[in-house]
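Predict the 3D structure for this chain.
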Amino acid sequence: MPLSAPRGARRRKLRRRADMPLLGGARPPIAALLALLLLVAGATALVLGDHDRTAVDKAVLSSQQRVAEDGALALRASLDESVTDLQRAAALFAGPEAVPADTVLDKLGKVYNKWRGLAVIDPTGGTLLAARGETIPLADTLTNKSDKAGNSGKQDGTPAPRLVKLPSGDTRMLVTAALRGGDKPRLLVASGTLNVPGISTGENRSLLVVDSAGTVLAKDGPSIARTAWAKRAAKTAAAAFTKTPEPGGHPGASGNLMGGTDKHRTAVGYAAAGRAPGETSPAGGLGLSVVTSVKVTEDAKAVRTQAFGLVAAAVLLVLAVLVTWILIRTVQRPLIGLYLESRRLGRGELDRPVRAFRGREPARVGAALESLRGQLLGGRPTRTGRARGGIGTRTTVIVCGVVLLAWAAPLLLLLNRAGSGVTVPKQLVEDQRRRTDTAADRVRKALNEGWADVASVAQIVGAGSDKEDQEDAGAGSATKAVLQTTLREHPRYRSVYVLGADGKVLTRAGASPRHPAGRKPYADSVVQLNTSGKEPAVAAYAAVPGGKGRTVVGEYDPQFLISMVTRPGLGQVWLVDDKHRVIAADRQHGFRAFSKLPGSHLDDLVTKARKDTNGTSLLHRADGGSSLAAAASFTGGGAVRDLNWQVVSEQPASWLELPEYTAQRHTMLAGLLGVTAAVACLGWLHIIVIRPLRTLADQAEALAGGDRRTVLFPQHHDEAGAVVRNLELIRQQLRTAERPPAGRN
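Done. Predicted structure below.
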């Protein structure tokens, strides 16, 4: 029997608590805050581990992968350009009458010098009609088989581009195009050398081009073919060709691996010269891959951050428990107590006073409930002014947030900063120069190829000049059709037009010409037409043979130049003229035409690179951090020989995967997670609990002060809403008790 009363009291207490809402209120945000802080503490201890030499190897490996991707892209672009050049040149000779085979080869030979051999053949019998340069294997040319990548011939029977091996051991790419005109079908065939991409090698770097079987087709730099890991790299690169490339990344599979021993390590990058899904690329189906390797000569020191991570995690654990305990004591428990007290009064249990509560808002509600208890017993309404002291719940939440931010903010902004004294491997600085040099070579070749296209158009225009002289002074419909075809098939141009000897536009296709009015045409070259304005104007000029001073002009689209200098992992890239004015920049960062380079160190670098044909690079250190910068000039001549343009790149060292910067990013991540957890959960608690609690205190005091007209509606099904419901029951009881008896005046 003595135990029955306490057990019964516990049962009644459990029944009263069972009416409390289990979802919503103060408990979910407090529990979520504790859980998230524990997860952040665990993540901090895990991600802030020690970073050893493998992190530096990762940075170098990633750089080699980027170099291989640049090489694969340059190789594919060069081969694709060879294919399309031949096909477009063949299309320009189309007409009702067949152009003699020797005339076709002579005109092509004057414009293009990329092909080792040219031939015109009769595909029906394999008869050679004309040839220039080295001997072309006709048997391989007439074989129309699909390659392993599905790069089959065209529907018109033209064989697809293919790789053939000559008796000398050299590899050639055979390209064919149909020559339309006359009654008999003819094929134009060209053989081109398969060269390694335009990447400088040096003493430590090797560069390979391999086919789908892993056979080395071209190489540059020190020989690496005898080592076992080099063969593995070639096979891995060949196997990567069959993989589907990632969307938005390199148009072909790529990767990296580390070879050699601990003392003599070699970083290898490989990339397939493939094509993205849905992309058209004749060379993308040849199964070629680029492999680059470099010796790793530096051993980086390990970065020790595990002890720091454990200490930071331990501090956060203590703060998480402390903040949770404070919120439970000052928010959750008072709310539950107010609910129980208000429920007791609503049921008419008025035998004992309402207990006192700590905290400003709970104390105000408790004092109002005590006043309402007295009114239910027959007392008069009174204002409750005795419980306005103490710390408010909003202040408590703000203090808890400040405590948590005091842990997270230093990690996010101050601690584990790498600074400007981080040791950057020399290989990364050298790779920045090589990639910049590759970008400059890519732009130079693209501009030269564009001039060659314009020159081939000039040859066609010149072939019909005599007839057009008799018709319309060079502005005949045939020339117009050639210009429109050229513009349609060459996205690099914004307009193509023909100038007279006095500089007057005779006919055009595309946008309005920007050739200076009244100026005679420039000589055969690529010319920069302006040095100011909103948009740079660059054009290729090619004189029409026998055209009496007429010149074909192709103006480059600025977006074409932008696409040429856009490469991932190279940082900010600029194309500048001889006065260091910006002509184009990568898409990610944008540019203002003819603006100056952002920094005197870049101007000095450009000046130095102009004297060094191999380009130059440096590690620039400033108060804001370090950066890798490089500059490379156009080399190799061609139509752009007088431009004196350069490609400049700069990449913050903090973007590199070095252990110091990795530790800094992980530390910032831990701080960011801490800030996110604190702001999200405490903001949730403030919106769902604290603001309704302050409103509840005002409503309870108004009811205790005699307001019987205002109906109280709970807005949420939680602790505060339960107290509001109980206050509404009390209001109804007080209003019934104050109503005069029926029939009394």
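The two ends are 55 Å apart (CA to CA).
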